[in-house]
Amino acid sequence: MNTLFSSGYCCSVGATAGKNDELTISEALCDPLIAMVMRADGVTSEEFKRLLEAAARELKANLAS
Hints:
Keywords: Plasmid. The protein is mainly α. The chain is 55% helix and 0% strand. The protein has one domain.
């Protein structure tokens, strides 16, 4: 099994999206294409995880109001 990160957020390469064809945060952190872009941009998986979680919280708050 190949993994993309050693940060603990990793899953095996080839993970597929959920039933609605949108990636979960965990799946996005393991996606090979996203990993390549993150490496090219110098973004760590922890930084990206925090960004996605903040965006999810903001979206949830906006939908609730």
